Amino acid sequence: MAIRVLKPGLATTVQDLGRPGYYHIGIPLSGGMDRHALAAANLLVGNEAGAAVLEAVFMGPELEFTADATVAVTGAELPPKLDGEPREGWTSFKVKRGQILSFDFLKQGARGYIAVAGGIDVPVVLGSRSTYALGALGGFKGRKLEAGDELPVGHAAATGKDGRTVARDLRGQPAGMPTELRAMPGLYWHRITEAAGNGFFSDTWKVAPEADRIGYRFKGGKPLEFVPREPPFGAGSDPSNITDACYPYGSIQVPGGTEPIVLHRDAVSGGGYFMVGTVIAADMDLIGQLQPNTPVKFVKVDMSQALAARKSRSELLGRLHSALA
Amino acid sequence: MQTRFSFGGDEHIFAEVGEAMSLEAFFKSLFITNAVRDAKIKGVTEICPANASYQVKFDPDQIKPDDLLVELKRLDSASEKSEPVIKTRIIEIPVLYNDPWTHETLMRFRERHQNPDGTDLEYAARINGLDSVDAFIKAHSSAPWFVSMVGFVAGLPFLYQMVERKRQLQAPKYLRPRTDTPKLTVGHGGCFSCIYSVRGAGGYQMFGITPMPIYDPNQTISYLRDFMCLFKPGDIVKWKPIDRAAYDAAVADVDAGRFAPVIRDVSFSLTEFNRDVDAYNSKLDGVLHGH
């Protein structure tokens, strides 16, 4: 069976849990930006948690099914409609051959995950079906979807059941305003003054319009003041420059000391800007659900707090698995 | 050189071998990342050498962050005792300097450049104290370059010139980055040259273009069938200036699947290199051309 793309949405891509192992040659992890929601969508339709799904950002696609299927939409509040009739998010439902899945306007969050029983069956490239658009790699022809594309769907091991749903407390979506992103100071933290470091964590930032799978930019906080130095050979003359180095996922670079950028799943793997620290792994999914203009605070944590947060995020995933087993 | 370690969140250890770029810092980062790879440490998922630093990504559910840090520090001190010798490859990259495509692009973005009245090559020649573009091209292509890092985007090599620091070519990046750079542009920023593996944004000065693809996600190009990225950190590159006729012939050869890049295995010793840079580089040239 296949899915015909009638309208592609804004930037809909095929994603699974990603492509580890090639960052040293500049190929990033890729994969769903909200991995918890991606896993939930798959489990709802009876797939393995890491099957390939569609990730739609800000605006849903319009899709025609060439055969009967079971579908679920999770993540952002992007209300699904089947032949124009509303369907519940975070709940599996049946689609008949020839029916059209479309979406209402985005109500909350940023990215919806559309899973189909059997998974989106694009070729596996370097161990993953995820799209890395910058490198024209993986996914459907290495790019976001376009009208007229036909997406192959894999054979479903079991016919997915409809009406299965994920309880609100198992959804792991951002809660509260401003959204709190926990971060460990480090990397080139010593390049800024103590006052600037305090300001970074006490200021409220807002998601800038430049927010995509590569990284999220933030603005509205005070510019960071640097500790004076002689530029090291190879680094460049700006105080925010370093000798080009690797960028961790979640690392927070601040070019010119003004607007922090948190790198995400399609990260550029390295470059010449200093970083003040790294958003902890447990909070990376939340970033994937932030819309431009959302207020955000960075909350300072240490390694033990980061590991505790990691444990609690993984327990949430464990409860999701049990609930949908 | 005292390596500075820092956790990058709960999944990365970042190690700065040197604040400044140097062959010694690069060599150490390459050496240690090779050792980490050989050690097959459980829970380590990505091992990334960079110019003067390196990064290891790990799963803290499989190895405690502090345990990995101890292991990296151990490998770091062990590296002090080892001979700085690597087995690597030397690769010849043909370049059409001053080509029409980067020229068109650099004219389009002229208002973002330090020297709006000239070309990137003219500017780079002047600020490096060379009296002509030809002299600059000679300086750029006469000594080999180390691939000191692969990244930013897929398959893009950062290249570090293998001459004494005082002879190294330097040029600032554009005042504001361009939104476009032709695929396979040979660029330069700071002390690093690069080859843009894909078309896209960029801030490096543009000197020329190579006909030789270095990244092919479809793996149809003959020499990229085994793996889609040509370069690995530690490779050595030698530029070969070519004219337009040779460029066109090479493009036709690539399209016809008969382009055979010149790649030779070589062993590189940093100690011997430092003893006599020019003599060592001409020895490398000999390896490349089989004499």
Describe the structure.
The complex is a heterodimer of chains A (325) and B (291). Chain A has 4 helices and 20 strands. Chain A has 325 residues and is an alpha+beta fold. In chain A, a hairpin with a 3-residue loop joins strand 13 and strand 14. Chain B is α+β, with helices and mostly antiparallel strands. Chain B contains 8 helices and 12 strands. Chain B has helices at 23-39, 65-79, 100-108, 120-127, 133-142, 244-255, 270-275, 277-289, and strands at 4-8, 12-16, 44-49, 53-58, 85-97, 145-150, 157-161, 185-189, 192-195, 205-209, 236-241, 263-269. A 7-stranded mixed beta barrel of chain B has the order 5-10-8-9-7-6-11, surrounded by 5 helices. In chain B, strands 1-2-4-3 form a 4-stranded antiparallel β-sheet, with helices on one face. In chain B, a hairpin with a 6-residue loop joins strand 6 and strand 7 (157-161). Chain B starts with a strand and ends with a helix. Classes of the chains: A alpha+beta (325), B alpha+beta (291). The interface between A and B is large, with 52 and 56 residues.
Indicate the overall shape of chain A: elongated
Helix content of chain B: 25-40%
How does the overall form of chain B come out from the CA principal axes?
globular
| Largest interface (CB < 8 Å) | A-B, 52 and 56 residues
Distance between the termini of chain A: 26 Å
pLDDT below 50 for ≥5 consecutive residues: which ranges of chain A?
none
